[in-house]
Amino acid sequence: MILTTSSIFLFLIAKLMKDSPQKEINNFIGYRSKRSMKSKKNWDISQVYSMKLMHAIFFKTFLFSLPLLIIDIFLIFNNENIFLVSLTIQTIILFSLFYLVFKKTENKLKIDGD
Phi then psi for 64, rounded to 5 degrees? Predict the structure, then answer.
């Protein structure tokens, strides 16, 4: 359940940010890390690359999570413990995907950035 709703939300944010990435380095909006904020070149690379990754990853995650949502709905009525395990697994998957975006973007900055 959490994976489906988060994936939709993050996909829409990535689409919005991909279509109009942040131009100026800031502490509030966009992909932010020490390396991405090091220079304007790094900032531009990280904004485009991370949002492209998030757009692709979270769209696929949304499609993958639809069957999980149906299973969760049935589990709510049948067994609360299994439902909690499902939510825990989905949360771990969500954080793993954030880590994947972070790691890939940082590697891209190591190769192409300043």
Answer: -65, -35
In a 10 Å sphere around its CB, with 0-12 CB exposed, 13-18 middle and 19+ buried, how is residue 109 labelled? buried
The domain limits of the chain are 2-19+38-112
Q: Work out the average pLDDT over 8-21.
A: 91
Residue 2 pLDDT class (50, 70, 90 cuts): confident
Question: The whole model's pTM is what?
Answer: 0.85
pLDDT of residue 67: 87
